[in-house]
Q: What sequence folds into this?
C-alpha cells in the first residue's frame, strides 16, 4: 500500500469539512494589473459530482470596492461578460468595475471572476500545450466559409456551396479533435451547472451562507443567470439578464441555438444602412454620395461581397487577400457593435474603391495577437468552444447536410451571406465527443415547468430582463420567452435600436431602470421600451477613427444623467475589448 492511497481519505475528510461547514477565508491583495482593484483566489471542488474527492479548482476573483459609507453598502454584485470563455477579471479591470459601480451609485462591491477553465483559473481548459500550437491551430482555421449570397438562391451553385462548407468544417473539426485529444482536466467540469455552484461559493465566501446573488449577466452570462435561478431559487437577490441567450435551445444540440440567435440580423443591417444614409456622407463614408445615387447601401454591401467572391482584394502587405469569407466575418462581428460603425463604414468604403488598408488594419487589430515565446504555456484562448459544446446536448450526430440546410435557411430568411461567420461553434461541436460532464445542466427545465417562477414569486424576488429590440446575436424573442417563463417574477425592459446587449448603445431610460432595480429593488409594473440616447454616426471628432470613439449623446441631460450614459459606455468598451 502506497503513501498516496493512505493519505487520500484523510485529505478528503479535511476538504469535506472545509466545504460543508466553513467558508474559505479569502485574503485579498491589490491586483497586479491595477491597484484600484483587489484580487484573490477561491478554491472550489473540481468535480461537484464528487466534491470530496480531493481534486480542486482555483478561480480568481477581482473586486472594485463599494464607494458609499459602510452602512449604505448592499453587499456584492457579480458580473459576467459571457463568451463563453471570456475573462471576467479582464472585463472588470478594463472598466466594468468602475462603470457598474457608477450605475449602481457605489452601493455594491463589484466582483467578477474568471469562470472555471478560463483565463487565469486553474486547471485551465486548454486544447494545446503551448501558445505556439494554439496560435497555429487558430491560424489554420478559416474565418468563415467562402460563400456568396446569390449561391443560396441558385440551385446549380449547391455543389460549390456544399464544398465550401465541407472545407471549412474539416478545418474546424481538426481543432475539435485535437482539443478532445488533449483532454484537459477542465474539459468536462466547466459547464454551467458547475459555474453556478462556483457563483454560490463566491457569495458564501463574500456575503455568508445566507447571502443572495446580485448579478448582471451579459450575453452568455445570461445562461449562468438562468442556470443559477433554477438551481438556487432561494438565493436570488437582484439579477439582471442583459442580451438573453435562449436557455432551452442551449440545452439542445447547437443546431437549435443557431436559428434562435439570428432573428434580427437583417433588421440590424437595415439599421446600419438607414442610420448611415440619414447621417449623410460627412458622418458615414458609405452614405450614398451625389456622384452615384443609383445604389443604396444594402445593394452596395451585397455587390461588394459578390465582387470579393470573384476577385479577392490583396491586403497591403501582399501575404493574404480579403475574400468574401473574411468580409462576412468582419461584417458579422462589427454588426454587434454600433459605436464602431462609422469606422467600419469608412473601411468598407475604402475597400469598395480598391483601398484595402483601413479594412486590413481593423481586421488584423481584431484578430491578431503577438506571441513573444512560442513555447510558453497555452492561454486557453479556445476554451469557449468546448464549454459551449458541453453546455449543449451532443451535436455529434448532426450531419454536414443538416448544417448546410440550416445555414441556407437562416441566410435566406435574413437575406445575407454573413451568417456563415457564426458557424464555427456548430462545426466545432459537431466534431466534438458526445461525452458530457457528470453533473448535468438544468437548461430550462425548471423554467418551463414554472417551478422557478413559483418559488421566486412566493419569495417576492423579481429579476430584470433587458434587451435591445434589434440584437443580432441575442434576439429580443429570447428575452420575451424568459419573461414568459418568469411571468410573475420578472419584468422586461427593452430599448430600441441595434447592438448586442443593452450596453452597446446608451439609453437613458434603460440604464435608469437598471439603476433603480439595483439601488431600490424596484421593477417597472409593465414592460417598458426606451429610446436610444446615443448617436451612431455623429460625424466630426474621432468618430470614424476608432472602433470605440468618444460617444455623442442626443438630448439635454443633467450631469447625473450624462454620468449614467458615460458609465454605460465605459462598461461597453470593456465588453468589446474582450476577445
Ligand atoms: C477595499 O476595501 C477593503 C476593505 O475595506 C480594503 O481593505 C481595501 O484596501 C480596499 N481596496 C481598495 C483598492 O481600495
Ligand atoms: C485602474 O482602474 C481605475 C478604475 O477603473 C482607472 O480609473 C485607472 O485608470 C486604472 N489605472 C490604470 C493604470 O490602468
Ligand atoms: C445559376 O448559376 C449558374 C452557374 O452555376 C448560372 O449559369 C446561371 O445563370 C445562374 N442562374 C441565375 C438565375 O442566376
Ligand atoms: C481524459 O481524462 C480523464 C481524467 O481527467 C480520464 O478519466 C479519461 O479517461 C480521459 N479520456 C481520454 C479519452 O483520454
Ligand atoms: C455606381 O453604381 C453603379 C451601379 O449602379 C456601379 O456599376 C458603378 O461602379 C458605381 N460607380 C461608383 C463610382 O461607385
Ligand atoms: C435597395 O436597393 C435594392 C435593389 O436595388 C432594393 O431591392 C431595396 O428595396 C433597396 N432598399 C432600400 C432600403 O431602399
Ligand atoms: C519560453 O517559455 C518556456 C516555457 O514556459 C520557458 O521554459 C522558456 O524559458 C521561455 N523562453 C524565453 C526566451 O523566455
Ligand atoms: C415585494 O417587494 C416590493 C418591492 O420591494 C414591495 O413593495 C412589496 O411590498 C413586497 N411584497 C411583499 C408581499 O413582500
Ligand atoms: C430610490 O427610491 C427613493 C425613494 O423612493 C428615491 O428618492 C430615489 O430617487 C430612488 N433611487 C433610485 C436610484 O431609483
Ligand atoms: C437619439 O438619436 C437616435 C438616432 O440616432 C434616435 O433614434 C433617438 O430616438 C434619439 N433619442 C432621443 C432621446 O431623442
Ligand atoms: C468524436 C465522437 O465522439 N464521435 C462519435 C460520434 O458518434 C458516433 C456514433 O454514435 C461514434 O461512433 C463516434 O465515436
A:
Amino acid at each position: 500500500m502506497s503513501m498516496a492511497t493512505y493519505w487520500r481519505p484523510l485529505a478528503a475528510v479535511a476538504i469535506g469539512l472545509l466545504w460543508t461547514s466553513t467558508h474559505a477565508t479569502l485574503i485579498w491583495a491589490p491586483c497586479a494589473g491595477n491597484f484600484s482593484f483587489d484580487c484573490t483566489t477561491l478554491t472550489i471542488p473540481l468535480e461537484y459530482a464528487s466534491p470530496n474527492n480531493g481534486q480542486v479548482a482555483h478561480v480568481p476573483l477581482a473586486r472594485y470596492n463599494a464607494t458609499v459609507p459602510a452602512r449604505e453598502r448592499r453587499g456584492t454584485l457579480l458580473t459576467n461578460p459571457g463568451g463563453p470563455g471570456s475573462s471576467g477579471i479582464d472585463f472588470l479591470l478594463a472598466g466594468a468595475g468602475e462603470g457598474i459601480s457608477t450605475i449602481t451609485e457605489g452601493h455594491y462591491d463589484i466582483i467578477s471572476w474568471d469562470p472555471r477553465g478560463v483565463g487565469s483559473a486553474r486547471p485551465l481548459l486548454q486544447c494545446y500545450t503551448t501558445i505556439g500550437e494554439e496560435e497555429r491551430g487558430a491560424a489554420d482555421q478559416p474565418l468563415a466559409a467562402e460563400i456568396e449570397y446569390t449561391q443560396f438562391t441558385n440551385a446549380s451553385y449547391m455543389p460549390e456551396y456544399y464544398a465550401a462548407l465541407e472545407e471549412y468544417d474539416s478545418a474546424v473539426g481538426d481543432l475539435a479533435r485535437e482539443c478532445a485529444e488533449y483532454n484537459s482536466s477542465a474539459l468536462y467540469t466547466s459547464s454551467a451547472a458547475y459555474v453556478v455552484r462556483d457563483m454560490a461559493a463566491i457569495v458564501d465566501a463574500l456575503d455568508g451562507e445566507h447571502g443572495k446573488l446580485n448579478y448582471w449577466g451579459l450575453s452568455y452570462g445570461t445562461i449562468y443567470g438562468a442556470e443559477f435561478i433554477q438551481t438556487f431559487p432561494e438565493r436570488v437577490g437582484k439579477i439582471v439578464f442583459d442580451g438573453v441567450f435562449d436557455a432551452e435551445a442551449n440545452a439542445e444540440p447547437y443546431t437549435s441555438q443557431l436559428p434562435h440567435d439570428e432573428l434580427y440580423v437583417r433588421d440590424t443591417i437595415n439599421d446600419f444602412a438607414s442610420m448611415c444614409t440619414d447621417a449623410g456622407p460627412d458622418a458615414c463614408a458609405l452614405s450614398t454620395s451625389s456622384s452615384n445615387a443609383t445604389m443604396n447601401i444594402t445593394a452596395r454591401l451585397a455587390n461588394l461581397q459578390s465582387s470579393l467572391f470573384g476577385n479577392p482584394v490583396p491586403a497591403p502587405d501582399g501575404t493574404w487577400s480579403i475574400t468574401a469569407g473574411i468580409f462576412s466575418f468582419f461584417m458579422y462581428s462589427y454588426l454587434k457593435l454600433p459605436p464602431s460603425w462609422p469606422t467600419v463604414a469608412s473601411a468598407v468604403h475604402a475597400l469598395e474603391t480598391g483601398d484595402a488598408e483601413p479594412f486590413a488594419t481593423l481586421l488584423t487589430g481584431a484578430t491578431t495577437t503577438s506571441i513573444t515565446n512560442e513555447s510558453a504555456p497555452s492561454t486557453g484562448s479556445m476554451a469557449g468552444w468546448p464549454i459551449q459544446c458541453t453546455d449543449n446536448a451532443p451535436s455529434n450526430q448532426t450531419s454536414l447536410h443538416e448544417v448546410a440546410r440550416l445555414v441556407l435557411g437562416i441566410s435566406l430568411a435574413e437575406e445575407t451571406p454573413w451568417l456563415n461567420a457564426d458557424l464555427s461553434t456548430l462545426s466545432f461541436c459537431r466534431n466534438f465527443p458526445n461525452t458530457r460532464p457528470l453533473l448535468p445542466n438544468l437548461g430550462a427545465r425548471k423554467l418551463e415547468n414554472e417551478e422557478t417562477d413559483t418559488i421566486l414569486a412566493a419569495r417576492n424576488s423579481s429579476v430584470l430582463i433587458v434587451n435591445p429590440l434589434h440584437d443580432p446575436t441575442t434576439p429580443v424573442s429570447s428575452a420575451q420567452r424568459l419573461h414568459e417563463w418568469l411571468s410573475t417574477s420578472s419584468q422586461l425592459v427593452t430599448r430600441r435600436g441595434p447592438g448586442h446587449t443593452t450596453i452597446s448603445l446608451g439609453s437613458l431610460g434603460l440604464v435608469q431602470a437598471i439603476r433603480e432595480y439595483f439601488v431600490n429593488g424596484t421593477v417597472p409594473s409593465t414592460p417598458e421600451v426606451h429610446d436610444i440616447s446615443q448617436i451612431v454616426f455623429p460625424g466630426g471628432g474621432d468618430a470614424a477613427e476608432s472602433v470605440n470613439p468618444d460617444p455623442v449623446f442626443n438630448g439635454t441631460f443633467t450631469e447625473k444623467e450624462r454620468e449614467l450614459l458615460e458609465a454605460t459606455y465605459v462598461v461597453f468598451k470593456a465588453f468589446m475589448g474582450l476577445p
User: Anything to note?
Assistant: Residues 77-96+126-179+208-579 form one domain.
